[in-house]
Design a protein that fits this description.
The chain is built from 12 helices and 8 strands. By secondary structure, it is α/β, with parallel strands linked by helices. Helix 9 runs antiparallel to helix 10.
Length: about 325
Amino acid sequence: MFNFCRNNPHHRRSVAASLVQGVYIQEKDRQQKRLWPQALAPHWWLFFHFQLINVLWDDDDRSIFGAVYEFKPSQASCHNHTVHRAPKYVVAFRGTITNVESISQDLKLSLQIFVETLHESSRFRVAMQAVQHTVASGGAANIWLVGHSLGSAIAMLAGKNMAKTNCPIESYLFNPPISCAPIEQIQNPAQKMGIRFVSNVIKAGVAVAVKGHQQRPDPFVLYAWTPYLFVNPDDHICSEYIGHFEQRKKMEEMGAGYIERLAMPNSIGSLVLGARGKNSEPLHLLPSAFLTRNLSPSPDFIQAHGIKQWWRPDLNCQSNLYQFR
């Protein structure tokens, strides 16, 4: 059995990723009609002293997309003090599964991420209710939110909603999608910098024009939350988070911090939709984050975007804290 130590970042990352994998395997168990004791999913949480207490189902395709786990260490672990400050509950969400029974709904929801309407989906409403219920039962300080890919987008949106009510939850988000062009994939640093600078100038101008005629709440005032983001530079779905946060630092160093502060809490899509009286929720607008990059080589996109990379003990990582000032 695994003895969890919260002060060990590899332990936290491995446990969070494995519990997400447990949700993936639950859905695959369902599709392949594997029941206990043939079911494979329980191994992914029992090894870490967790028990499954709730399964989250999608209202549209009846697939399993999430789970709520409760931490219940053995008496021997508690007696030996080998378990240190583990979360009492973990709410986990899987990403897209390409099997025919789930691919259609998963792709539909993935599209909603990029048009900034994921918050309108029934899957997110089920997820949000589960998070609120778990917080009411265990308290926000005793809970983790974890997810991968589409699941990390759901977890991120739920975490933002809770933080807006002064209830931040510790969150581990693997390969989170970002609704921005993958500029990070451009090899020339000067070109990347130039494109991002022009983009920020445009966003700042649109923000001034739109907010000059409409009073809209500042999303960076509504919540203070610092999730853990795990990205792979070779994954074009999430790699732009690297440039998204690095650009802030560079703009400050260039003396263009005012432009960056106008642009940072907005996306073009949210500004345009807001001017038309429509509600949107761009996921990547985070004031702060612990960003971890996987610097180990990835032979292809499947491995660069996969969940399996994040529990490897030999992972070569670089972590940075980015905070909004």
